[in-house]
Specification:
The protein has six helices and four strands. The chain is an alpha+beta fold. The longest helix is centred in the N-terminal third of the chain and has 23 residues, at about 1-25.
Length: about 140
């Protein structure tokens, strides 16, 4: 759990230091803008913008029932954030697994990627796809959910 929040906390701390430095120099407007930007970066790299994660075994069970893809991801991953943003509201239709919170999810990703924890890895119909095009993932989302 600690590792999940490391990147967002570092963004906020760095933003606070930079903003304090700018404010000390007399640029309070710039300091405020920089602090807001760093906080937005922290939110974008946190678990807040992603749908609620579930365990890998539960995600695969649900996927077998409803045919929706399982997306393995981790906080701080720019490619995962890109996938999430490009899927838009449809992202909630996929089953999301945070590999930093679920050891079984991390193991599934390593098994699909020659021992590497490359994310996003999308599991669809029992086949793993590493960093697929978000448009392809969107096409494979169930329209009824």
């Amino acid at each position: 759990m600690k590792r999940t929040w490391t990147v967002p906390v570092l963004y906020v701390l760095c933003g606070a230091v930079v903003a304090a430095w700018r404010a000390f120099e007399g640029s309070s407007g710039t300091a405020a803008v920089l602090l807001v930007l760093f906080v937005l970066l922290a939110v974008a790299h946190s678990t807040v913008v992603f749908p609620r994660s579930i365990g890998a075994q539960e995600a695969q069970r649900r996927s077998a029932l409803d045919g929706r893809p399982v997306v393995f991801w981790r906080p701080g991953c720019a490619y995962c954030l890109r996938m999430r943003v490009k899927l838009g509201r449809g992202a909630r239709q996929a089953h999301w697994v945070d590999i930093w919170r679920d050891p079984a999810g991390a193991a599934a990703v390593r098994a699909a990627n020659d021992g590497n924890e490359t994310v996003p890895t999308v599991l669809l119909a029992g086949r793993a796809h590493t960093n697929p095009d978000p448009a392809w993932v969107r096409e494979n989302l169930s329209p009824s959910a």
